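Query structure, 386 tokens:
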């Protein structure tokens, strides 16, 4: 298993879950996970009890910025990535009984790897949970349009012994319908999670804490959270609800965050332990995704809300609609921002009709967490990967 993209605390839940799943499916074989040093250590700490899972960490330099003056180091980094990937393809090629799984690669590395393994005799799998939406979106900046083209070429180049793994049937249906890939080359499973023991509250705190989980960014439409915080900062609700951002902010959001409690160390990424501790103190998690983003990639922050038992207040969106369909009442599914304001206001005023479903919402979130557990996703994947 090779991850040549993720650095540090990103994707910890996913890679911890997936390594545990693969180690369970191939329990009589040794499973090697190759990843950046800090990230590898975090995964190892989550899966320290798995005997057939071993780790091979490496030092990773961040990708240089996009300025023309950094084009040469950027090119060197890409070539270095491809040489690194080739090394593990060569190792896997030593036996047709070996299996190679790429858990996260850049778009260019995905295409390079797919071309390199397409005629190999060993099985290889590519987990696609990145920027697949660029395949389907229009009017993109040139950089994102190029990524979409690379994804298309990668899908077209899949060989007989090569499959991709996606994180919902929604993604699989749309990819197959696009004609880019055959159904037999796509494996769909739900996003796996590491289950945890949750101490559920009987009702929200007073004042209520509404949380934005993870980095504030444009593709999450985090400005909606800031707008809600500003609106209730000026409202007459007593006590006023608390809006808490657990994570750093992309450029441009600092000026919008006047009514938001920001949990970040000088706008730097906080530790996984601090991140999870602060989620525990939130009553509701707010999401404002649209159908342009987080349909072809599954939000780790959304999975965090599920695993911490935090009812969600969100806008209707294809993937979130799916969660409500399979899990029932896990929060409040809103048509627009005005309806979100109405729900938040009623919760803040502690109106009984919205508070009395808090326990039901938490119970359904726990069932959803168990549905996405390592054991359950292991069954989904094993039925398709063998």
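Result returned for the query:
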């Amino acid at each position: 298993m090779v991850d040549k993209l993720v650095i540090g605390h990103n994707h910890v839940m996913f890679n911890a879950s997936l390594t545990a799943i693969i180690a369970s499916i191939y329990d009589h074989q040794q499973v090697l996970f190759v990843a950046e040093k800090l990230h590898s250590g975090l995964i190892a700490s989550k899966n320290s009890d798995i005997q057939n899972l071993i780790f091979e960490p490496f030092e990773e330099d961040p990708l240089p910025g996009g300025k023309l003056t950094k084009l040469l180091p950027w090119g060197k980094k890409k070539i270095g990535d491809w040489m690194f990937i080739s090394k593990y393809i060569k190792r896997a090629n030593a036996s047709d009984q070996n299996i190679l799984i790429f858990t996260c690669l850049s778009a260019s590395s995905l295409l390079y790897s797919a071309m390199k393994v397409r005629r190999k005799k060993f099985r290889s799998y590519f987990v696609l949970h990145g920027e697949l939406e660029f395949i389907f979106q229009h009017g993109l900046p040139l950089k994102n349009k190029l990524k979409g083209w690379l994804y298309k070429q990668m899908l077209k180049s899949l060989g007989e012994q090569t499959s991709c793994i996606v994180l919902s049937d929604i993604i699989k249906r749309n990819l197959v319908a696009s004609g880019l890939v055959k159904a037999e080359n796509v494996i769909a499973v739900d996003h796996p999670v590491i289950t945890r023991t949750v101490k559920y509250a009987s009702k929200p705190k007073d004042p209520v804490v509404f949380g934005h989980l993870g980095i504030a960014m444009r593709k999450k439409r985090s400005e909606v959270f800031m707008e809600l915080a500003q609106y209730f900062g000026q409202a007459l609700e007593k006590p006023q609800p608390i809006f808490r951002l657990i994570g750093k902010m992309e450029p441009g959001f600092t000026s919008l965050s006047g009514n938001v409690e920001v949990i970040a160390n000088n706008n730097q990424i906080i530790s996984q332990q601090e991140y999870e501790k602060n989620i525990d103190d939130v009553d509701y998690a707010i999401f404002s995704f649209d159908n342009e983003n987080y349909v072809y990639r599954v939000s780790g922050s959304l999975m965090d809300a599920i695993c911490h038992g935090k009812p969600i207040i969100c806008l209707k969106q294809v993937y979130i609609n799916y969660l409500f369909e399979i899990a029932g009442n896990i929060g409040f599914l809103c048509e627009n921002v005005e309806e979100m304001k109405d729900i938040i206001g009623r919760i803040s005023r502690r109106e009984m009709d919205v508070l009395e479903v808090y326990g039901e919402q938490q119970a359904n979130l726990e069932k959803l967490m168990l549905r996405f557990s390592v054991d359950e996703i292991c069954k989904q994947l094993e039925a398709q990967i063998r």
